């Protein structure tokens, strides 16, 4: 199968994730969309690795996974504590920083 | 002997400290403490004088170094005194007249509940004035200079409950500030030019400097002298200063402090001698002031203000003489001393008259007082004869010499200055005769008060003490007041002859100030005779105006000149229009520039930055999504740019 198709899939997944980040308010959904974007990147990296015939892309994909895992830990902790204090997971409620 | 010099200053300073810090416990004895300490200072002065007389003329200068005041590398200020013939003359005048006036004040201020404070201020004045004349450098002289200014301010405003006195004190202080600025600039110039401000080095090395610098220093010293000695253009404060108690007017504003300017000029003789332009300005200032003061003196109905005009005029003579250079210095100081005697005597006489007349100062409400106050009449009369220069009395010897020296200046200048001095002598005779006639001769105008009709001269006893409207009962003053007047009258009569005959005073001061005998274009006898002639003319004219005719109780409207002279020749109007209004306009335009230009630039910058940031602020709306959009937008732009670059 032509590896370019994987790239199309990756672009589609990235676009879905980015759209979700822009239009959804629920923090959990937002978070899942970010994960989707990251995994789309991973897919693209692995595809490039295959296309160029070396392992650099795959190694970077591992790095991305590690970073994503760390991000999930910190991000979920923030979301949980936000929810505890506000009883809502909407990101629009957390807009105190604006003037 | 040298160690006694500091005591001269210390005695009155101690008195001031004790009296001003001692509180009410000293109310009962305060005036005696003040008087005794002034007398102590006089006795020390007399001892030093006797010691000085025992030495040769060249070895008479002694000094005392107390301590280093500001010992800095390249800037040495010392508390050190110098006592030479010039200082000695002043020391004796200040402490002598000062002691007499302390004595007089005991009686004059008897009913004033703040008498202790008054004596404290008087002692403070004596200390500052002695410091001024004893200092051996200009910086210490400046300390004394400011000290007498402070004492003058405190004493003019002594009856501060009167708004007029408080204002007069402020006016004197402010006008003096202008002069003081001149002195401080002069001292700074000296320091940059000579690297020191001690009399000795400065005056000795004056010849090594350019004439321009010396002229600048001399003019600044003259400005200082104008402020302190009430010379045109800084003369306006002296008339108002008469709001102070009369002993103050006699001591500070007639005999001693106002002559400090003359002292300054004579002390700086070496600088003035080398700056002929500054000398010319000095003579002009003196000549203008001597006419100015005399004209003002002719129109004033307030006895003290008439005498103040006269003081201004007489100091004008001294400044004129000091500006003439070595032919005049000695006579400036000689006139200063004789003037100290007769003017203090005249003021004390005026105070005595006021004391007996319920503090009335308007001469139109005097008249015929010679019967009621014989001692005052005689002493005042002797002072009067002395000031107009009646042959044989003090003023004759000193003023005649100044007129002679003015003519001896030579050329057109000499004729003009001499003519002005002669004219001044005529006007002096006129206004002093006027004061004399209005006060002691003529009908008793104080009897015909608006409340009492003329045919009922005796008012009911109950009405006697109803304040200022009650008819006054002129009476002679107590002995503590008349004795100083008598002593000063002796001085007024004999001092001139003592100094003048055989050129005693000239020999005494010559080692300090230097002296050159002036050669007037006409003989000295002619000048003396014409002085006497103009004196008779002036006095005779005054007799025609005020002796032969009754004096109206209300001042007539008078000619334009009279009305202007009553307003001090419009000096205050001039100051108001030129300085006050001018200053106001200047500040107003500066404020306008400040508001429009400076504030405009600053506010404009702030407003534009504020507007811009207000717009930028809208970007920060706090919604995570919008930040995400800008992130995505930025990433898109970056990618687009990268692609574009690669395509090119």
UniProtKB/TrEMBL annotation, chain A:
<dbReference type="GO" id="GO:0050136">
    <property type="term" value="F:NADH dehydrogenase (quinone) (non-electrogenic) activity"/>
</dbReference>
<protein>
    <recommendedName>
        <fullName>NADH-quinone oxidoreductase subunit K</fullName>
        <ecNumber>7.1.1.-</ecNumber>
    </recommendedName>
</protein>
<keyword id="KW-0472">Membrane</keyword>
<keyword id="KW-0813">Transport</keyword>
<feature type="transmembrane region" description="Helical">
    <location>
        <begin position="6"/>
        <end position="23"/>
    </location>
</feature>
<keyword id="KW-1003">Cell membrane</keyword>
<dbReference type="GO" id="GO:0048038">
    <property type="term" value="F:quinone binding"/>
</dbReference>
<dbReference type="Pfam" id="PF00420">
    <property type="entry name" value="Oxidored_q2"/>
</dbReference>
<dbReference type="InterPro" id="IPR001133">
    <property type="entry name" value="NADH_UbQ_OxRdtase_chain4L/K"/>
</dbReference>
<feature type="transmembrane region" description="Helical">
    <location>
        <begin position="28"/>
        <end position="48"/>
    </location>
</feature>
<keyword id="KW-0874">Quinone</keyword>
<feature type="transmembrane region" description="Helical">
    <location>
        <begin position="60"/>
        <end position="83"/>
    </location>
</feature>
<dbReference type="GO" id="GO:0042773">
    <property type="term" value="P:ATP synthesis coupled electron transport"/>
</dbReference>
<keyword id="KW-0520">NAD</keyword>
<dbReference type="InterPro" id="IPR039428">
    <property type="entry name" value="NUOK/Mnh_C1-like"/>
</dbReference>
<comment type="similarity">
    <text>Belongs to the complex I subunit 4L family.</text>
</comment>
<keyword id="KW-0812">Transmembrane</keyword>
<comment type="subunit">
    <text>NDH-1 is composed of 14 different subunits. Subunits NuoA, H, J, K, L, M, N constitute the membrane sector of the complex.</text>
</comment>
<keyword id="KW-1278">Translocase</keyword>
<keyword id="KW-1133">Transmembrane helix</keyword>
<comment type="function">
    <text>NDH-1 shuttles electrons from NADH, via FMN and iron-sulfur (Fe-S) centers, to quinones in the respiratory chain. The immediate electron acceptor for the enzyme in this species is believed to be a menaquinone. Couples the redox reaction to proton translocation (for every two electrons transferred, four hydrogen ions are translocated across the cytoplasmic membrane), and thus conserves the redox energy in a proton gradient.</text>
</comment>
<dbReference type="GO" id="GO:0030964">
    <property type="term" value="C:NADH dehydrogenase complex"/>
</dbReference>
From TrEMBL, chain B:
<feature type="transmembrane region" description="Helical">
    <location>
        <begin position="627"/>
        <end position="645"/>
    </location>
</feature>
<feature type="transmembrane region" description="Helical">
    <location>
        <begin position="118"/>
        <end position="135"/>
    </location>
</feature>
<feature type="transmembrane region" description="Helical">
    <location>
        <begin position="214"/>
        <end position="234"/>
    </location>
</feature>
<feature type="transmembrane region" description="Helical">
    <location>
        <begin position="483"/>
        <end position="502"/>
    </location>
</feature>
<keyword id="KW-0472">Membrane</keyword>
<feature type="transmembrane region" description="Helical">
    <location>
        <begin position="522"/>
        <end position="544"/>
    </location>
</feature>
<feature type="transmembrane region" description="Helical">
    <location>
        <begin position="29"/>
        <end position="50"/>
    </location>
</feature>
<keyword id="KW-1133">Transmembrane helix</keyword>
<feature type="domain" description="NADH:quinone oxidoreductase/Mrp antiporter transmembrane">
    <location>
        <begin position="135"/>
        <end position="419"/>
    </location>
</feature>
<dbReference type="GO" id="GO:0015990">
    <property type="term" value="P:electron transport coupled proton transport"/>
</dbReference>
<feature type="transmembrane region" description="Helical">
    <location>
        <begin position="278"/>
        <end position="299"/>
    </location>
</feature>
<dbReference type="InterPro" id="IPR001516">
    <property type="entry name" value="Proton_antipo_N"/>
</dbReference>
<feature type="transmembrane region" description="Helical">
    <location>
        <begin position="414"/>
        <end position="432"/>
    </location>
</feature>
<feature type="domain" description="NADH-Ubiquinone oxidoreductase (complex I) chain 5 N-terminal">
    <location>
        <begin position="69"/>
        <end position="119"/>
    </location>
</feature>
<dbReference type="GO" id="GO:0008137">
    <property type="term" value="F:NADH dehydrogenase (ubiquinone) activity"/>
</dbReference>
<feature type="compositionally biased region" description="Basic and acidic residues">
    <location>
        <begin position="462"/>
        <end position="478"/>
    </location>
</feature>
<dbReference type="GO" id="GO:0042773">
    <property type="term" value="P:ATP synthesis coupled electron transport"/>
</dbReference>
<feature type="transmembrane region" description="Helical">
    <location>
        <begin position="246"/>
        <end position="266"/>
    </location>
</feature>
<keyword id="KW-0812">Transmembrane</keyword>
<dbReference type="InterPro" id="IPR018393">
    <property type="entry name" value="NADHpl_OxRdtase_5_subgr"/>
</dbReference>
<dbReference type="GO" id="GO:0003954">
    <property type="term" value="F:NADH dehydrogenase activity"/>
</dbReference>
<protein>
    <submittedName>
        <fullName>NADH-quinone oxidoreductase subunit L</fullName>
    </submittedName>
</protein>
């Amino acid at each position: 199968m032509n590896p370019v198709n994987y790239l199309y899939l990756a672009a589609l997944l990235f676009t879905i994730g980015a759209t979700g980040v822009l239009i959804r308010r629920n923090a959990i959904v937002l978070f899942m969309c970010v994960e989707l974007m990251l995994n789309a990147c991973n897919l693209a990296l692995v595809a490039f690795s295959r296309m160029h015939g070396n392992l650099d892309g795959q190694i970077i994909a591992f790095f991305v996974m590690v970073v994503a895992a760390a991000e999930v830990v910190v991000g979920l902790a923030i979301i949980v504590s936000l929810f505890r204090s506000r009883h809502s997971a909407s990101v629009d409620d957390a807009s105190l920083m604006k003037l | 002997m040298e160690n006694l010099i500091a005591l001269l200053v210390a005695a009155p300073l101690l008195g001031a400290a004790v009296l001003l810090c001692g509180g009410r416990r000293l109310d009962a004895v305060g005036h005696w403490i003040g008087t005794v300490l002034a007398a102590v200072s006089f006795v020390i002065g007399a001892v030093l004088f006797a010691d000085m007389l025992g030495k040769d003329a060249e070895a008479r200068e002694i000094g005392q170094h107390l301590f280093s005041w500001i010992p800095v590398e390249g800037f040495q200020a010392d508390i050190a005194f110098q006592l030479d013939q010039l200082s000695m003359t002043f020391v004796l005048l200040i402490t002598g007249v000062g002691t007499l006036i302390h004595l007089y004040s005991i009686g004059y201020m008897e009913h004033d509940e703040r008498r202790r404070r008054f004596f404290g201020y008087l002692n403070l004045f004596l200390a500052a004035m002695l410091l001024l004349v004893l200092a051996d450098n200009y910086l210490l002289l400046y300390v004394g200079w400011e000290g007498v200014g402070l004492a003058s301010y405190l004493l003019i405003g002594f009856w501060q409950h009167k708004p007029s006195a408080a204002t007069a004190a402020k006016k004197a202080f402010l006008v003096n500030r202008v002069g003081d600025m001149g002195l401080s600039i002069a001292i700074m110039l000296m320091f940059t030019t000579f690297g020191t401000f001690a009399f000795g080095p400065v005056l000795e090395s004056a010849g090594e400097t350019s004439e321009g610098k010396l002229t600048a220093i001399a003019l600044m010293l003259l400005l200082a002298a104008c402020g302190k000695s009430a010379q045109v253009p800084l003369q306006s404060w002296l008339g108002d200063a008469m709001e102070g108690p009369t002993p103050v007017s006699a001591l500070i504003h007639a005999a001693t402090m106002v002559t400090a300017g003359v002292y300054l000029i004579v002390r700086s003789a070496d600088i003035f001698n080398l700056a002929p332009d500054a000398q010319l300005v000095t003579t002009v200032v003196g000549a203008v002031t001597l006419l100015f003061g005399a004209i003002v003196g002719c129109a004033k109905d307030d006895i003290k203000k008439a005498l103040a005009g006269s003081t201004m005029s007489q100091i004008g003579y001294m400044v004129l003489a000091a500006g003439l250079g070595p032919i005049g210095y000695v006579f400036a100081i000689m006139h200063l001393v004789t003037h100290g005697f007769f003017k203090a005597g005249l003021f004390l006489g005026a105070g005595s008259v006021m004391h007996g007349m319920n503090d009335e100062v308007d001469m139109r409400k005097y008249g015929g007082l010679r019967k009621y106050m014989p001692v005052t009449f005689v002493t005042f009369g002797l002072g009067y004869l002395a000031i107009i220069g009646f042959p044989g009395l003090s003023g004759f010897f000193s003023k005649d010499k100044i007129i002679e020296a003015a003519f001896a200046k030579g050329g057109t200048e000499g004729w003009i200055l001499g003519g002005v001095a002669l004219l001044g002598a005529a006007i002096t005779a006129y206004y002093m005769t006027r004061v004399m006639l209005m006060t002691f001769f003529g009908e008793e105008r104080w009897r015909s008060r608006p409340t009492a009709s003329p045919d009922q001269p005796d008012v009911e006893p109950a009405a006697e003490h109803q304040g200022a409207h009650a008819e006054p009962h002129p009476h002679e003053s107590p002995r503590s007041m008349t004795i100083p007047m008598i002593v000063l009258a002796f001085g007024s009569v004999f001092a001139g002859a003592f100094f003048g005959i055989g050129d005693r005073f000239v020999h005494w001061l010559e080692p300090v100030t230097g002296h050159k005998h002036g050669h007037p274009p006409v003989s000295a006898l002619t000048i003396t005779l014409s002085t006497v002639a103009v004196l008779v003319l002036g006095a005779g004219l005054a007799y025609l105006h005020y002796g032969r005719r009754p004096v109206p109780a209300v001042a007539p409207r008078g000619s334009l000149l009279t009305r202007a002279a009553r307003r001090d020749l419009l000096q205050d109007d001039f100051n108001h229009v030129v300085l006050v209004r001018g200053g106001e306009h200047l500040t107003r335009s500066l404020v306008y520039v400040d508001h429009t230009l400076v504030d405009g630039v600053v506010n404009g910058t702030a407003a534009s930055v504020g507007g811009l940031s207000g717009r930028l602020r809208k970007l920060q709306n706090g919604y995570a999504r919008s930040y995400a959009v800008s992130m995505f937008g930025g990433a898109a732009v970056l990618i687009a740019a990268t692609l574009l670059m690669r395509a090119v």
